[in-house]
Amino acid sequence: MIKLLSTRTAAYGLILIQSLVLVFHFLVLFGVVPFEIVWGGRLKSAEEMRVFESVSIILNTLMIAVVAIYAGLLPLNVNRKMLRFAFWVMFVLFALNTAGNLLAVNEYERMIFTPLTFLLAVFSLRLALSKPVPAPNASFQN
């Protein structure tokens, strides 16, 4: 997998997909997209949706920041081992999310978000397996 997928592709893929997912979560939060099609179709109320979507927006923003730091797009000096640990956590979260999407009540969620979370899991795994690169400007040579 390491030779087939560069860290550059994985990092920019994560940023792109998570940015689009972030926009989607804001659309759900503001009622543009019905909340019945997210969270496995199991949300019972608008209040419950606001809590879940707010947490999701915070987590997605944090994950985008972690990847941006790794990629040198956000020039913060963060221990590279901490970033790799974060990528392992992201991999586990996205793998579990993929399994959850497969079990979703809503077919839209199964068909659209299962492949997206699978890709996010693969990209996160690629970065978790990468050798640490010097901070803050990643060279993407591994």
Protein topology:
Elements: H1 7-29, H2 46-70, H3 80-102, H4 107-129
Helix pairs in contact: 1-2, 1-4, 2-3, 3-4
Relative strand content:
under 5%
Number of DSSP strands?
Answer: 0
Q: Which structural class do the helices and strands define?
A: mainly alpha
Number of helices: 4
From the alpha carbons, calculate the radius of gyration and give it in angstroms: 16 Å
User: How many separate domains make up the residues?
Assistant: 1
Taken from the alpha-carbon principal axes, the silhouette is globular
Uncertain ranges: none
Helix content: 55-70%
Keywords: Membrane, Transmembrane, Transmembrane helix
Transmembrane segments: 12-35, 55-73, 85-105, 111-129
Protein name: DUF4345 domain-containing protein
